[in-house]
Amino acid sequence: MLQRSDQLDKVEQYRRREARKKASVEARLKAAIQSQLDGVRTGLTQLHSALLDVKDIQGSLADVSKDWRQSINTIENLKDVKDAVVQHSQLASAVENLKNIFSVPEIVADTQQLIEQGELLQAHRKLMELECSRDDLMYEQYRMDSKNTSDMNLISIYFEDVQGLSDELAKQLWMVLQRSMVTVRRDPTMLVSVVRIIEREVKIDRRMVDRKKQSGFIPPGRPKRWKDKMFEVLEGTVSTRIEGTQSVTREADKMWLVRLLEITRKYVLDDLIVVKNLMVQCFPQHYDTFNRFFGLYHNAVSSRVKELAAEDLEANEIVSMLTWVLNTYKSVEMMGHPDLASECDINALEALLPQDVVDDLLSKYVKTFTSNITGWLRKALETDKKDWQKETEPEADQDGYYQTTLPAIVFQMFEQNLQVAAQIDGDFKEQVLKLCLKQMNTFLIRYREEAVTYKEEHLRDRQLPQCYVQYMIAIINNCQTFKESINSLKRKYSQSSEPTDSDAAIERTLSEVAKEGCQFLLDEVFLDLEHHLYELMTRKWLTGSHAVDTICVTVEDYFNDFNKIKKPFNQEMTSEALRRVVVEYIKAVMQKRITFKNADERREGADRMIKEANQFKFLFRKLAAGEDTDRLCGAIAAIAEVFKLTDPTLLFLEVTTLVSKYPDIREEHIQALLAVRGDASREMRQMIIGTLSENKVTYSAVTQPIFKDIAVPTITNTMTSMTSMATAKLLK
């Protein structure tokens, strides 16, 4: 507190403050001690007063005990008085009910008439009078002599019509309750009267049960438990209402279940709105009327849908059922309707169907759907196959590409089923999508087989079908349409973007079908070109054949139709056509159909080859064959340069140039070229092959090979063993 010398001036101030604090603490301690002392003083005073009171009470109890012992004999002398009092009570009761006793037949008749007239409240009032008279007489008789059954039976016989009236009145009450939905609209006072009567009976039942606990007596027919019976009647009414919604059967109407569920939805919603707006006002608040009816309707609907689920439902009916149960029931169209939302919590409702029943229905649907979709796909393919035999061209899409209706039919089928599955559940939608893709893969395998069969049938008679080329183009285009449609379905109905095994299989099968279709079309082209290809590199060709002109015209004519093929297949097909044309041309060279006799023939043949290579180049550039056009056509020109060379000493350089451009060329190819040239000696051939083996060119797999698939006919090999070994090294 005192850390610096300048604070010494405040010492007196600190001393006074501490003195005040000390005085305050002492004052509080004194007050607390005084309060404790006052409390102790008060407690001692009260204890002293209580002791005096206890002594007074003890004395009073002693006086009471003394008086009681003196009055025992007096009480025994009053037994006769007690019996007289009981008899007087019975007689008083008899006198009180005497009027009612004599008028019982008249009251019974009046009550019966009131019941028939629908005056239920008045009828019940008279019934209560009769029952009250009967019960009082029986009670007094029971008190007087509980073992005297003859008197009891006498009273029961005299009042035997009362029980009949009670039953008749109850029957009228139940009839009103059974028609409560109609009654509450037309005459709500009638329903209110019924509820008032039942409430009266509940009170009487409670009073009689309490009296039984005290005396052991309860009147006949009690307790009536009309309140419990009322709820049973209402439950039966609701159940009957729900069960009565089926107006047609499957035999009469294929949409019977949809109609049944829609009628049920409408009835339940309308009835619950009536309950909320009208019925609640007719029942006491403690009945919790709306929630009670809400539960009754829920239980009735649940029982009904369980019965329907146990029937042999068809696939579309299973979907309708599950869609209604899982979605419609709790939606705003039914139990979640805005008019009901303020009165109930739909999330607290139990499921209409147990999960195992739902799973069984889904399993049954999947099984049926699998069977159905297999049949649908088979029929769709059979219909498409019939179209392949038509004499008219297939339809074209908006871009002019040939197509058939098969993809549209198949994916419309898938789309419809997926839309239905999506209404049921997201997971189930995914399951159906996977099933569709699995069936699609199986279907495409069959589609591929049918396309092969279609081609084989055509080859047996190439005149039939007349539109073979056009429909094969449509088959190829369908593959692209299938691929696009599958991707569209996955984007729309699948939440997962991960590829599946089915995706890879479908992609692979579609590619195979399309590639085979393109191959079939090219086979068709080359069947027409076969005769003209045989003319290449022959004497007839050298002297002025128009084979290549015809080949170009034929290819261009076919590709006018092939323009109807979608990308990327048209591009791939054009490139393959170019490759096959070049390969067939080079095959003609390698087959040594001609051997040039002199330099003039070699020059003339080479010029012709270069010209024809340019023709091919011009044609396939026009057809947009791609970047390999120059390289492929250049192979023909490069071979021509080998033939055209006039100086044999430079032949090695020309061959080396050819090998460097086309490294897949083999020894037998070079031998064939030198054989066609006709002027290469054995020594020159050996020198060329040997030198090339020492300077072999590495083959790059990136470049599409030309000579790899070109076989050379077997010839007598007169080369030495050394030359063969050198050639083998070159070919590695």
UniProtKB/TrEMBL annotation:
Transmembrane segments: none
Keyword Cytoplasm: yes
GO biological process: exocyst localization; exocytosis; protein transport
Subcellular location as annotated: Cell projection, Growth cone; Cytoplasm, Perinuclear region; Golgi apparatus; Midbody
GO molecular function: SNARE binding
GO cellular component: exocyst; Golgi apparatus; growth cone; membrane; midbody; perinuclear region of cytoplasm
Gene3D superfamilies: 1.10.357.50, Exocyst complex component Sec6, C-terminal domain (1.10.357.70)
Keyword rRNA-binding among record annotations: no
Superkingdom, taxonomy of origin: Eukaryota
Residues forming coiled coils: none
Keywords, alphabetical: Acetylation, Cell projection, Cytoplasm, Exocytosis, Golgi apparatus, Protein transport, Transport
Quaternary structure (record): The exocyst complex is composed of EXOC1, EXOC2, EXOC3, EXOC4, EXOC5, EXOC6, EXOC7 and EXOC8. Interacts with EXOC3L1. Interacts with BIRC6/bruce. Interacts with MYRIP. Interacts with SLC6A9.
Family assignment from sequence similarity: Belongs to the SEC6 family.
Function: Component of the exocyst complex involved in the docking of exocytic vesicles with fusion sites on the plasma membrane.
Name of protein: Exocyst complex component 3
Protein source organism: Champsocephalus esox
Lineage, broadest ranks: Eukaryota, Metazoa, Chordata, Craniata, Vertebrata
